[in-house]
Amino acid sequence: MKNSILIFTAFFMLFSITTNAQNHNTEKNNYVVLTKKIPQLQPILITAEELQAEDAQHFGDFQVIICGQTVTGLTDKEEMEKYIKRANKANVSLKACGFSLNKFGVDYKEIPFEMKVVENGILYNFQLQKKGYTSIEL
């Protein structure tokens, strides 16, 4: 009986690993970071640059979603300009969470035009994970 359970467990684990490996696109490495603090953009962008160099032709998409109360700081055009320039140079897409913008009363027109707004940053993050993106929340 113990052997049957052990064999079943081993086959189940093997099947799970094989299925996950089949769903992962090994041609491109895609990344998404969800952050609640604008100053974290600096180390996030450094990480993106280093991953781009490390991954070479396998580097795919890198997106950063900014959520929470920190979205009020997105209206500081001078502060955001340095992040936007570096993100553009590193092929990183910066997104603002529309839910957070609405909750904290930030006018969409006041954030830099280079930033796209996603309706719900947390949902968008999960949707990218379903597509195989490597994700981290800071």
Tell me about this structure.
This protein is an alpha/beta fold and 138 residues long. 48% of the residues lie in helices and 20% in strands. The protein has helices spanning 2-23, 41-55, 77-89, 98-103, 121-130, and strands spanning 29-35, 59-66, 92-97, 116-118, 134-137. It has a five-stranded parallel sheet, sandwiched between helices. The chain is globular, with a radius of gyration of 19 Å. The N and C termini lie far apart (46 Å).
Key words describing this protein structure:
20% strand; Hypothetical Protein Ychn, Chain: A; 138 residues; alpha/beta; disordered N terminus
Summarize the structure.
Residues 1-21 form the signal peptide. The chain has 138 residues and is of the alpha/beta class.
Write the layout of secondary structure elements.
Layout: H1 2-23, E1 29-35, H2 41-55, E2 59-66, H3 77-89, E3 92-97, H4 98-103, E4 116-118, H5 121-130, E5 134-137
Parallel strand pairs: 1-2, 1-5, 2-3, 3-4
Which range does the strand content fall in?
15-25%
What is the CATH T-level topology? Hypothetical Protein Ychn, Chain: A
Largest sheet: 5 strands, parallel
Q: Which quaternary structure do these chains form?
A: single chain
Structural class: alpha/beta
Order of helices and strands: HEHEHEHEHE
Shape verdict: globular
CATH architecture: 3-Layer(aba) Sandwich
Distance between the termini: 46 Å
Q: Give the helix level as a range of percent.
A: 40-55%
